[in-house]
Design brief:
By secondary structure, the chain is α/β, with parallel strands linked by helices. It has ten helices and 27 strands. It folds into three domains: 172 residues, FAD/NAD(P)-binding domain (3-Layer(bba) Sandwich), CATH 3.50.50; 116 residues, FAD/NAD(P)-binding domain; 80 residues, 2-Layer Sandwich (Enolase-like, domain 1). The strands form eight sheets. Strands 5-2-1-9-21 form a five-stranded parallel sheet. The longest helix has 15 residues.
Length: 421
């Protein structure tokens, strides 16, 4: 008798290699989404320029204010990477990518091959190119190192100037004031948060922050940072000659997509790495980009919600499902300053063909502005009471008619619906 023939053993196909450049919120959220739907498809390697695991960058403001610690804002500790079989290289910025051989090289020589590459390099803070911008005591506000530098400066110095009256600048100013510094915000615009608030709501915000001790120089052009005898910053000089004392200067005048690596390796960039609806770069379909470094349909998003929406679609395609499309995001804004509530979304300023419904309660410090067009809500600006912000945002996203609730909509969508019934 002949022995029965043995069936050949089924061999497991080798895993593909995924390399992620950027250990921030967008890149690691993409990895998380990928692990949910295709946990065994890739061996994953992550390179991060900072010597930290993934943390919640938008919560740096509470750390600066002394309300949280760095450990409190870590999203994925080091053991999370190990538990998921992810090779993590912290403090190793990537300096080269050989697209022909598909090899990534870090500054210290560490290399990793890839079948798919994900760029999540984020953005760089914009430093005003004025004389003295590189003096000791002039910092940006972007990461943990910047935050720690500001905390150290607040321990031994008295006067701070924050250049930029946007979200990040106001959060920095508030945090430094809470740490005992005398803070002046220098802002080029006519009012604070001109991209997120109208003039009236910005006035309420300025009054509230002024009551906390902050000072403001609006419509002000920064001309130079002036040095003392030891080479440390001592003042900020404005274009009109005014000098504002400053032992610490925080540049918070905006960010730019970090496309230095993408440009160096020949990817098409224009205010971000150009990507399609699948988050693949237009230049190389093996390379994807998500987050602040990506330019999708002319937009580079700096808020967390769009980044997470991109991550879900990108993971779908990395998993070879190929059914997701990212078509852009509606965004809303909140300020992370304890005790101050503001919210804005959509066309809150009001373009041609719109009408505004405004509710004011000066005693309670409440301001609500709703902008309608063709019977639909297209924008909202709330100060002092943002309880209905999410509901207004959903109405803006849906484009549903609110004509029947027009007269009562300012009291909230739920109240308006009940009163219209």
């Amino acid at each position: 008798m002949h022995a029965p023939k043995k069936e050949p053993a089924m061999s497991t196909p080798p895993r593909k290699q995924l390399v992620v450049i950027g250990n921030g919120m967008a890149g690691i959220r993409t990895v998380e989404e990928l692990l949910k739907i295709a946990p065994d498809l890739y061996d994953i390697t992550v390179f991060g320029a900072e010597p930290h695991p993934n943390y919640n960058r938008i919560m740096l403001s509470p750390v600066l204010a002394g309300e949280q610690t760095v450990d409190d804002i870590v999203l994925n500790p080091v053991d999370w990477y190990a538990a998921h079989g992810i090779t993590l290289h912290m403090g190793k910025p990537v300096t080269a990518v050989n697209r022909r051989q598909r090899i990534v090289t870090a500054a210290d020589g560490t290399q990793a091959p890839y079948d798919r590459l994900l760029l999540a390099t984020g953005s760089q803070p914009f430093v005003l190119p004025v004389p003295g911008h590189d003096l000791q005591g002039v910092v940006t506000y972007r990461d943990i190192a910047d935050t720690n530098a500001m905390i150290e400066a607040a321990r031994t110095h008295r006067h701070a100037v924050v250049i930029g009256g946007g979200l990040l600048g106001l959060e920095a100013a508030n945090g430094l004031a809470l740490r005992g510094m005398a803070v002046t915000v220098v802002h080029l615009g006519d009012w604070l948060l001109e991209r997120q608030l109208d003039r009236e709501s910005a006035g309420l915000l300025q009054a509230e922050l002024g009551a906390r001790g902050l000072r403001f120089a609006l419509s002000a052009h920064t001309a130079a940072c002036l040095a003392d005898a030891e080479g440390r910053v001592r003042a900020v000089q404005l274009k009109d000659g005014t000098e504002i004392p400053a032992d610490l200067v925080v540049m918070a005048a905006g960010v730019r997509p970090d496309v230095r690596l993408a440009t160096a390796i020949g990817l098409q960039c224009n205010r971000g790495v150009l990507v399609s609806d699948t988050l693949q770069t237009l230049t190389d379909p093996r390379i994807y980009a998500v987050g602040e470094c990506a330019n999708h349909r002319g937009m580079a998003y700096g808020l967390v919600a769009p980044l997470y929406e991109q991550a879900a679609v990108c993971a779908n395609h990395l998993a070879d499902f190929g059914i997701g499309r990212y078509v852009g995001s509606q965004v809303s804004t909140k300020l992370k300053v304890t005790g101050i509530d503001l919210f804005s979304a959509g066309d809150f300023m009001g373009a041609d063909g719109t009408e505004a419904i405004v509710l004011r309660d000066p005693v309670r410090g409440i301001y609500k502005k709703l902008v309608l067009k063709n019977g639909a809500l297209v924008g909202a600006c709330l100060y002092g009471d943002i309880h209905d912000g999410s509901a207004y945002f959903e109405l803006i996203r849906s484009g549903a008619s609110v004509a029947a609730q027009r007269d009562t909509l300012a009291f909230g969508p739920q109240a308006a619906t009940a009163l219209a019934a």
